[in-house]
TrEMBL record, chain A:
Protein name: Exosome complex component RRP43
Underlying gene: Exosc8
GO BP term (any one): U4 snRNA 3'-end processing
GO CC annotation terms, alphabetical: cytoplasmic exosome (RNase complex); nuclear exosome (RNase complex); nucleolus
MF-aspect GO terms: mRNA 3'-UTR AU-rich region binding
Subcellular location: Cytoplasm; Nucleus, Nucleolus
TrEMBL record, chain B:
Quaternary structure annotation from Swiss-Prot or TrEMBL: Homodimer. Component of the RNA exosome core complex (Exo-9), composed of EXOSC1, EXOSC2, EXOSC3, EXOSC4, EXOSC5, EXOSC6, EXOSC7, EXOSC8 and EXOSC9; within the complex interacts with EXOSC3, EXOSC8, and EXOSC9. The catalytically inactive RNA exosome core complex (Exo-9) associates with the catalytic subunit EXOSC10/RRP6. Exo-9 may associate with DIS3 to form the nucleolar exosome complex, or DIS3L to form the cytoplasmic exosome complex.
A biological process term (GO) from this entry: U4 snRNA 3'-end processing
Main location: cytoplasm
Subcellular location per the Swiss-Prot or TrEMBL entry: Cytoplasm; Nucleus, Nucleolus
UniProt KW keywords: Cytoplasm, DNA-binding, Exosome, Nucleus, Phosphoprotein, rRNA processing
Organism this protein belongs to: Rhagologus leucostigma
Gene Ontology molecular function terms on file: DNA binding; RNA binding
Protein name, entry field: Exosome complex component RRP46
Cleaved signal peptide residues: none
InterPro entries linked to this entry: ExoRNase_PH_dom1 (IPR001247), ExoRNase_PH_dom2 (IPR015847), ExoRNase_PH_dom2_sf (IPR036345), PNPase/RNase_PH_dom_sf (IPR027408), Ribosomal_Su5_D2-typ_SF (IPR020568), RNase_PH (IPR050080)
Length: 275, 186
């Protein structure tokens, strides 16, 4: 396995399964932990921990107040940041964010923007004066492949968990008053879910690759769908060329996965709400 | 196309630093410099897209332990920047004479709010569009080498854009042939 990893994998793939016992189209067990009671960050306004097999990603959302930009007076901001600290995998060194972390941050920003998950106008408190800024920090604690799926999932779960205190502007002083007792959840319009595939030898497509599989793959594809079956993002950074039909297969699988994930999130949220 | 222009410079295969060299293939590096300002996160993700696209076509195994550096400077941006970068990269690879498995070209499609597909949109059209999709199409069997979308669209719309991009790829490959012919016929 260590000397000829590609050959080792090829033998498994010929039988249509993988070394860890999964089928080509099967995902690893996904677990989600939301909010302050079960784990996660107590100082954040919303948090979630997602485990996709061994890949562990935690997302914390902090909401702060700021003045809006001059050209978009009624829009708030969402600032995602993906960190891959050196503890999660030996190939990442500490220091300024590497290319992978930056590309992942850009990917998450694109997903939020494309899917209109949070409409920026909803984050506005007083047009031209005060808006919410949501800092989403996504940190990978254990990297075993498929970072993008886990990050998108963690972000979605954390945002659903966020409770924003209501803010009113005092007419006389012009200052804002934050009412911590009264909290409202964030309005989330769409629920995007990412599905990643690894391409082997220009033909085989496997779902949810582990770190080993990602290294051996000749290419990767990530598809983000929302609940209406619309594509929010198709991200195929190079790698072996795919025909249109293969891409279509990926999309269909992504849509099925979306339903599974949505059910999982709804179940978890229902289990923590009656408090 | 249009007013967007990108200058591409290719250096290599050259000696690689020990920390960067790969034992069995060439190490490809892409640097994208925006017109103003320092390269940011957006440039990084574009660099990654370009790098992996180039890695798929460049026969790196013929030049192990070397480094190939591709530097792209954006001269002006009037829409369809990513596919302009892709085309510039491919022509640079061709011009340098590096062994390639296939040629590729970049095509951008904009999906307008009323559903019509527009190829090579200008910056204004990109902003008005519901979705902007960029594809890198390979010359062998018109397969999809790279895909990047901005904005959401339905699956059928994506397939339509893909088909339109594949047709447009033919025109671009013809342009490559003409340019190369012109260069080497003198």
């Amino acid at each position: 396995r260590t000397v000829e990893p590609l050959e080792y994998y090829r033998r498994f793939l010929k039988e249509n399964c993988r070394p860890d016992g999964r089928e080509l189209g099967e995902f690893r067990t996904t677990t989600v932990n939301l909010g302050k009671c079960l784990c996660s960050i107590t100082t954040a306004d919303g948090s979630a921990l997602v485990k996709l097999g061994n890949t562990t990603v935690i997302c914390g959302v902090k909401a702060e107040l700021a003045a809006p930009a001059a050209d978009s007076a009624n829009k708030g901001y969402i600032v995602p940041n993906v960190e891959l600290p050196s503890l999660c995998a030996e190939r990442f060194r500490s220091g300024p964010p590497g290319e992978e972390a930056q590309a992942a941050s850009q990917f998450i920003a694109d997903v939020i923007e494309n899917s209109q998950m949070i409409v920026k106008e909803d984050l506005c408190i007083a047009s031209g004066k005060l808006v919410w800024v949501l800092y989403c920090d996504i940190i990978c604690l254990d990297y075993d492949g498929n970072l993008r799926d886990a990050s998108v999932f963690a972000l979605l779960a954390a945002l659903k968990n966020v409770q924003l205190p209501s803010v009113t502007i005092n007419e006389e002083t012009g200052l804002s008053e934050v009412n911590l007792k009264q909290k409202n959840p964030l309005i989330i319009r769409k629920h995007p879910v990412a599905t990643s595939f690894a391409v082997f030898d220009d033909t085989l497509l496997i779902v949810d690759p582990t770190a080993e599989e990602e290294d051996l793959a000749t290419g990767t594809v990530t598809i983000v769908t929302d609940e209406e079956g619309r594509l929010c993002s198709v991200h195929k950074p190079g790698g072996s060329p795919l025909t249109g039909a293969k891409l279509q297969d990926c999309i269909s699988r992504a849509i099925t996965r979306h339903k599974e994930v949505k059910k999982l999130i709804d179940k978890v949220i229902k289990s923590i709400t009656p408090k | 196309p249009g007013d967007t222009s990108v200058l591409a410079g290719l250096y290599g295969p050259a000696e690689a630093k020990v920390s960067k060299e790969l034992p069995d293939r060439a190490a490809l590096e892409v640097l994208l410099r925006p017109k103003v300002g320092l390269p940011g996160v957006m440039e990084r993700s574009r660099e990654q897209l370009l790098r992996q696209t180039c890695e798929a076509v460049v026969l790196g195994v013929l030049h192990p332990r070397t480094a190939i550096t591709l530097v792209l400077q954006v001269l002006s941006d009037a829409g369809s920047l990513l596919s302009c970068c892709l085309n510039a990269a491919c022509m640079a690879l061709l011009d340098a004479g590096l062994p390639l498995a296939a040629l590729f070209c970049g095509v951008t499609c904009a999906l307008q709010p009323d559903g019509t597909i527009l190829l090579d949109p200008t910056a204004r059209q990109e902003q008005e569009a519901r979705a902007v999709l960029t594809f890198a199409i390979a010359s062998s069997e018109r397969k999809v080498l790279m895909a990047n979308t901005k904005g959401s669209c339905s699956v059928e719309e994506m397939q339509q854009c893909l088909a339109a991009a594949q047709r447009a790829a033919d025109t671009i490959f013809q342009f490559y042939r003409d340019s190369v012919r012109r260069r080497y016929s003198k």
